[in-house]
Amino acid sequence: MITKTSPEIGGMGHSIKRKEDSRFIQGKGNYVDDVHLPGMVYGHMVRSPYAHARLKSINTEKAKQLPGVLAVITGEDLAKANLAWMPTLFFDKQMVLATGKVLFQAQEVAFVVAQDQYTAADAAELVEVEYEELPVLVDPHRATDPGSPILREDREEKSNHIFHWEVGDKAATDKAFQSAPVKASVHAISQRCHPAPLETCGCVADFNRATEKLTVYLTSQAPHAHRTLFSIVGGIPEQNIRVVSPDIGGGFGNKVPIYPGYVCAVVASLTLGLPVKWIETRSENLQSTGFARDYHMTAEIAADQNGKVKALRVKTLADHGAFNAAAQPTKFPAGLFSMCTGSYDFAASFCEVDGVYTNKAPGGIAYRCSFRITEAAYLIERVVDILAGQLKIDPAELRRRNFIQPDQFPYKTPLGWTYDSGNYEGALNKALEMVGYTQLRKEQEEKRKKGELMGIGISSFTEAVGAGPAHTFDIAGIKMFDSAEIRVHPTGKAICRMGTKSQGQGHETTYAQIVAQELGIPASDVIVEEGDTDTAPYGLGTYASRSTPTSGAATAMAARKIRDKAKKIAAHLLECSEEDLEWEPGKFFVKGAPSKSKSIQEIAFAAYTNIPAGLEAGLEAVNYYDPPNLTFPFGTYICVLDIDKGTGEIKVRRFVAVDDCGNVINPMIVQGQIHGGLTEGLAIAFMQLIDYDENGNVQGGSFMDYLIPTAVETPHWETGSTCTPSPHHPFGAKGVGESPNVGSPAAFVNAVVDALSHLGVKHIDMPITPWKVWNVLKEKGVVS
Ligand code: CDP
């Protein structure tokens, strides 16, 4: 087993390889929308304008009469094939097309198929639906009120309550609170937001009546899991389904669930025998596909006078919208929210979550986070800051006093997780040094005297990424492991096929680097392929920063199998015993006689031309890697900002991000991941909310209202790192892609609250817009 430090493994080549594979499609690019197949037709959704209404009638006649229209499918049509409802990823069920009633605005009501997308959209306008409005439930806090409408008439339980979930030791936690001299608390909302990938969701379903084979080009982060679910739900033999997920323009969790549009396109293709394309519009994506967050959380800390924490108590209300379509392991109704003890050494903790239905789009997906860990990290980092403020202890110092110490790893949290490794103080110290913390605090003091508003916010988060292990983690019952298959060709070049699926994270580069590191084949000689279920080994896909901890590990393990076989061939070629051989990346040589060597390329050639007796020909291996544990990356982020007293406008002046993801494969890609995630964290902290009015009308359904940060709003990110390898990963790496989105919202909010703390401000909910800040300043008499 090798444990490399970051520069060495990164040193195998830093350039970004462009994927040049356009086998799947002929078009301008390599995305689903670029797929153009002979005879292809187009689908368009008819959607409900109401959030809660009974469907009185649907008249499709006028739409069907429009020239170019091939079919109009309704919920009643699907019901005849038992397809009006589909299972969600969380053992709930969801309407594909509405029958009986609609439960959220923009819900799918009918699917129109026409020869071009303009005709399909025009025909959708001609579908006449008669609705009878029903009382709407928007506020999750009212979901279980006796007077609230019961939304899900399909369920036996006549209640909007979905689940109650609790973990931890309630008695020990309550006891600690009874005797604690200090208590701090916060009520914080991790607001409903949306990943808003630049490419919306979509598919081309192509059923070939001659071969009975269904090919689905799909914006899928989990192509194999989707193939299996298509087979189970649709009754199509799995060997007859091929899911191809070409390049993806951002996933962030949005492309993990199966959406009604995919199912309708498949049904239409099966019915018509033609390829059917369905691509969502921007508003459809924001209004109806899986939302993220919507956690309404209360956290309380019990501590002593020195700020040493004793216990954590968390109570949360989770708004799941109309269907519980959470994309998370089935053992965890609230995902990894029980990671809420964060980086701190609590003796006791208790966490409970209740999920409820409302008249909103279903979810919630893990938006660039490991199944609800962003909510958890935000909560703990907020309440720790509040405790520091209450005790007038510097927030960096308070964190330091409570961190889990390096010698406590592997560390078991009171809520049941076992952290693999960490050095939280190391990351904090580096961030403090990079930002010049002491000097900044002095500057803040001076500014306050002059009436200026400057804030410094710290977040020392812990992430948990890399699901499996398979015994604990699954998606819709399919166990979470992941895979890699490496084939070395006679000329020493290689192809590596994976169970994961990049959405722009650079897998084509980094997996090739792992092969290079393990086998000494140059990264430029390795092709990496993902996303075609006919060729790639089975895997659970890419989300929750799981690729490096799972498929990255599988790549190393498969390469090591190849190296073991290569050793046998080298011994045969060098006429020595295997024990006499030593390895250095790229060649085996005879111990003490380095000139007597065989390169991996020579060995590969021999694997097909000069095989030792008793050995199989060829040089390839596959590995299905079931990790023994998650990996636990961490870091400290520090935000420095100034607030304009006149307008409430916030300017992020500095942002230092120190991340620790163990050994790094490619420093440039990791930095890119951090930049992207921080930008999304900034957007969530300051700009983004999918809001609803009292009638359930979506307020953030377009980019006019749902804001995406551009280069103008985005500050310069200053990144740094520490390196604490994962002890159980084959080359000591931890995942990283989501850390910046998990860790940063708290740093931004803590900085705003810090800037206003001397005015008595303890908390402001995200998104912290200038309008919100201005109102706080007005309330505090700073502006009139
Ligand atoms: O699953 P996903 O690819 O989104 O997340 P990840 O495993 O955190 O990897 C994101 C990108 O960063 C991939 O290209 C990884 O290979 C790369 N990475 C790295 O170079 N070194 C690490 N220790 C972790 C990730």
List keywords for this structure.
binds cytidine-5'-diphosphate, alpha+beta, 784 residues, disordered N terminus, 5-stranded mixed sheet, 34 strands, 28% helix, 7-stranded mixed sheet, 18 helices
Task: State the helicity in percent bands.
Answer: 25-40%
Largest sheet, in brief, is:
7 strands, mixed
User: How many β-strands, per DSSP?
Assistant: 34
Main sheet: which strands, in order across?
3-7-1-14-11-12-13
| Separate helix tally | 18
Instruction: Identify every distinct bound molecule in the structure, by name, code or SMILES.
Output: cytidine-5'-diphosphate
| N- and C-termini, Cα separation | 66 Å
Uncertain parts? 1-27
Specify the structural class: alpha+beta
Radius of gyration, in Å, reads 27 Å
- What is the percentage of strand-forming residues? 15-25%
Characterise this structure.
By secondary structure, this protein is of the alpha+beta class. The strands form ten sheets. It has a seven-stranded mixed β-sheet with strand order 3-7-1-14-11-12-13, with helices on both faces. Helix 13 (507-519) links the parallel strand 26 and strand 27 (526-529). The longest helix is centred in the last third of the chain and has 27 residues, at 548-574. It starts with 5 loop residues before the first helix and ends in a 5-residue tail after the last helix. Mean pLDDT is 95; it is low at 1-27. It binds cytidine-5'-diphosphate. Cytidine-5'-diphosphate binds at residues 505-507, 510, 542, 545-548, 552, 661-666, 669-670, 673, 733-737.
